Amino acid sequence: xxxxxxxxxxxxxxxxxxxxxxxxxxxxxxxxxxxxxxxxxxxxxxxxxxxxxxxxxxxxxxxxxxxxxxxxxxxxxxxxxxxxxxxxxxxxxxxxxxxxxxxxxxxxxxxxxxxxxxxxxxxxxxxxxxxxxxxxxxxxxxxxxxxxxxxxxxxxxxxxxxxxxxxxxxxxxxxxxxxxxxxxxxxxxxxxxxxxxxxxxxxxxxxxxxxxxxxxxxxxxxxxxxxxxxxxxxxxxxxxxxxxxxxxxxxxxxxxxxxxxxxxxxxxxxxxxxxxxxxxxxxxxxxxxxxxxxxxxxxxxxxxxxxxxxxxxxxxxxxxxxxxxxxxxxxxxxxxx
Length: 337
Ligand code: SF4
Hints:
The chain has helices at residues 2-19, 31-41, 46-59, 63-68, 71-78, 85-100, 107-110, 118-129, 138-147, 157-168, 176-189, 268-278, 322-325, 329-332; strands at 228-239, 242-247, 258-259, 262-264, 283-295, 299-310, 318-320. It is α+β, with helices and mostly antiparallel strands. Iron/sulfur cluster is lined by residues 143, 146-147, 190-191, 197-199, 202, 204-205, 208, 210-211, 215.
């Protein structure tokens, strides 16, 4: 592995210089910009991130602006990207940077910021501060395991450690950022995750032990755990244009976001009306029932919504229009007709 890693820079750097895609976050190496893009890209496709990235920086141009931004603005700018804990942690990281008075310039110190793991720390340290710190994500794991035809399951921590160490020894002084980018680019555009890799066009094909077809079963993926299934009943208590909302707990799934009252299990219509009464709403009419499915990483919600027109607002709940609330997708889909 180390032998292969050492031969990568001389091939990848010229290839990257000639083939790099023009992406908005590659136009400078400002740490705030790079960190924002890396956090956005964690769970979202490049094409989808472009518009979000530009809009976010138009609204919050500096790390100081992010520090002072209100939660509703943050959620609005992040709406549609999902995993809202990412933007909350990003703001906490910005606050820590401002308190420090500077951006940490090593992967070790970057990892002390909230929400920043080894991958993001390696990316920011190499891209912004020319540190020889690999950013090993799924793309890089795929490229490296294919190059060396390694059949160890991709989630093996020893494998990740070995690949990180091999790459760290190969980082070329003065080109650390470009080497990180080149590895990412190879995984995103040539040695792709879905479909056949473009081995004909691959700048490191001559080093690769998988190009004759072993790429079909490498990387080896761990057996998937089945997602937990949950059936949930949801009350859509409507008073005029507004619906009843509450905040989710500060920790866990969709932490701190708005939701409609909901509970595990199927209540049925009589149960939903009874539940609405118990909350203090005066149900007048069941407008409709609606079923939707929402899939998270580890759990799948089967949602059954009961839209009920009410004569008065229930105490203890907050009433907002759907547009005001920045509801997460899992609940917003219940409002779609
Ligand atoms: S030769 Fe093919 S399988 Fe090997 S690294 Fe290049 S694209 Fe991936």
